[in-house]
């Protein structure tokens, strides 16, 4: 069995089908710098959702991806590149500033599409990461949800790179609390996208229902 295919098989056996809240867990394969051959192998092995970090890669490989997976954009998005993704991306994970939400809304409306998106939260308050501060997320959500042609479907976060599992679990649980609060008043909320190859177990334990995995699927990039 090919390495990618065996990785996927092992991963799908390890990851529970539902989180502690009884919600289905979606695995999004992060395909940054992967060949279309590797991506297609992962899809053949059972991956149903793939996530791109770079618009250029998305454009270059779009027609060569087989199996009709759901398409996610999980990287930092520049407003001038939205036009290349419209109508092709099922879910934007990184709505990290109001100006991006405004532009995505405007361009989506002009194209006659409704774009699904997640609000990115900088849960570790890290200067090296974008996203809304935890304390600002609720007010940002209320402002963003008034924009036309956007459907806010949940929240996304990246935990800090830390060996302190207690800290990570605390932050992940804070995200789940905020997600539950907003979901109680918004029926469109269905995704808490949190967890990567190094911390997905902690994130699922805390209630994540969508994980973005690259190394676990494709192996280390060199």
Q: Care to describe what's here?
A:
This protein is an alpha/beta fold and 222 residues long. The protein has a single domain, classed as Alanine racemase (TIM Barrel), CATH 3.20.20.10. It has 8 helices and 9 strands. Helix 6 crosses helix 7.
Helix content bin: 25-40%
SS content category: alpha/beta
Q: Please compute the radius of gyration using only Cα atoms.
A: 17 Å
Total number of helices? 8
Shape estimate: globular
CATH homologous superfamily designation: Alanine racemase
How many structural units, i.e. domains? 1
Give the total of beta strands: 9
Overall CATH class:
Alpha Beta
Mean pLDDT: 96
Task: List its salient traits.
single chain, 222 residues, alpha/beta, TIM Barrel, 9-stranded parallel β-sheet, 8 helices, 9 strands, 20% strand, globular
What is shown here, in short?
The chain is α/β, with parallel strands linked by helices and 222 residues long. It has helices spanning 3-14, 36-44, 55-61, 98-111, 134-144, 165-183, 200-206, 215-218, and strands at 26-30, 49-52, 70-73, 91-95, 115-122, 132-133, 150-157, 191-194, 210-213.
Q: In terms of topology, how is this protein built?
A:
Layout: H1 3-14, E1 26-30, H2 36-44, E2 49-52, H3 55-61, E3 70-73, E4 91-95, H4 98-111, E5 115-122, E6 132-133, H5 134-144, E7 150-157, H6 165-183, E8 191-194, H7 200-206, E9 210-213, H8 215-218
Helix pairs in contact: 6-7
């Amino acid at each position: 069995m090919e390495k990618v295919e065996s990785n996927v098989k092992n991963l799908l056996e390890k990851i529970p089908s539902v989180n502690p809240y009884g919600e289905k867990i979606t695995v999004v394969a992060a395909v940054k710098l992967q060949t279309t051959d590797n991506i297609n192998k992962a899809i053949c092995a059972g991956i149903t959702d793939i996530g791109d970090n770079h618009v250029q890669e998305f454009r270059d490989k779009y027609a060569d991806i087989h199996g009709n997976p759901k398409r996610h954009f999980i990287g930092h998005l520049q407003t001038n590149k939205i036009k290349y993704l419209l109508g092709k991306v099922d879910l934007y994970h990184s709505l990290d500033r109001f100006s991006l939400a405004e532009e995505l809304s405007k361009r989506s409306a002009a194209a006659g599409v409704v774009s699904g998106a997640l609000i990115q939260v900088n849960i570790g308050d890290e200067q090296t990461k974008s996203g809304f501060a935890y304390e600002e997320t609720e007010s940002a959500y209320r402002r963003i949800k008034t924009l036309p042609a956007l459907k806010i479907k949940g929240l996304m976060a990246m935990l800090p790179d830390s060996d302190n599992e207690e800290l990570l679990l605390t932050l992940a649980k804070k995200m789940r609390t905020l997600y539950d609060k907003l979901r109680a008043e918004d029926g469109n909320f269905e995704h808490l996208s949190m967890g990567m190859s190094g911390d997905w177990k902690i994130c699922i334990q805390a209630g994540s229902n969508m994980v973005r995995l690259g190394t676990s699927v494709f192996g280390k990039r060199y």
